[in-house]
Fold each of these.
Amino acid sequence: MNKIQAQIERARGFFADVHAELRRCSWPSRTELFESTVVVIVSVVMLAAFVAVCDGLVVLVLQAILPR
């Protein structure tokens, strides 16, 4: 039983530390969060377009090199 209580106390201490650390964090404002989200979405779309173009080029090159 002593072992279980020790584990519970360790878990309680861990969550207390997590709570204290989260209170010290600097959280972004709603505007900053929205702007960052837009930047991420635009970046992902641009990267997806780049990969699609590269994939298309590789397919064209391979079709030209390898006969059917």
Amino acid sequence: MRAVQLVSETQGLQLVDWPMPDPKEGFNIIQVSHAALNHRDLWISKGRYAGIKYPVILGSDVCAFDENKRRVIVNPGFNWGDDPRVQSKSFHILGMPEHGSFAEYVSVPVQHIYSAPAHLTDAQVSALPLAGITAYRTLVIKCKPQAGENLLITGIGGGVALMVLQFALALKLNVYVSSSDHSKIEQAIQLGAKGGVNYLDSKWDVEVLDQSGGFDMIVDSAGGESFSKFPKICKPAARIAMYGGTNGVISNLSPQQLFWKQISIYGSTMGSPSEFAEMLSFIIQFKIIPIVDSIYELADFNSAFNRMNSKQQFGKIVLNVSK
């Protein structure tokens, strides 16, 4: 079968002819239609991820067909464990260490396979799993939003941030966004956000506070210097939830603002199997359509990775594996 494989640290990603997955008890081999990229794939390809093994087929998101020709979606987070609050030590994500979805066939645990939402195209289905469960747990499970509350989403344009936006709009929240790209802010406003700011502006916090009057929730993927400004723009009893840290260590955070305003900070990664099922039901109930930025053929994987590396995308970048 054809597959995009991370061959070695020096050889990088290559399109290879690779053996079919071996049948294993408790696993199904499914035929991939479309597979979406995540920043996880980019970081692994650059060697910036813990425990990388070579060779490995990347890819965590997939729309596929099972042996009965049923169109399916896969929960890519394996071995969550028994504690709904946190993943187990054996938790891992499809696409490393186990071979992932950038291939014509992939082997996945039977209990992680679900019928794909009927209102979505194959590309849209593939755009959903990792971003969808991460967004759902971060916003719905951790923050427990109430209709009419104000929410700030940082770094709009990425897959998770856009899923948070779409979930928030379905829940009737007042959504504001930040980005370094004005066009992405405008696109978010067209989707239903009430406003947005460029986080490269030194007084972005003052501007977004003027726009909103303050926030009940902030969902962040970056950390870094900007995080220290969050308490200032939070209302009392606000919740801050983060699912990434691309900007690194948080400094100059005022504990006084945190405890006096009774602000809660939550970390969140992926989600439990029951939360994945809840997320799918939410998607179906509100007929949410994940935003696809672009679609590339499997052989053109380099263009897809370059698109992600450029940070220009608005939505998910998808590989059409069936062509």
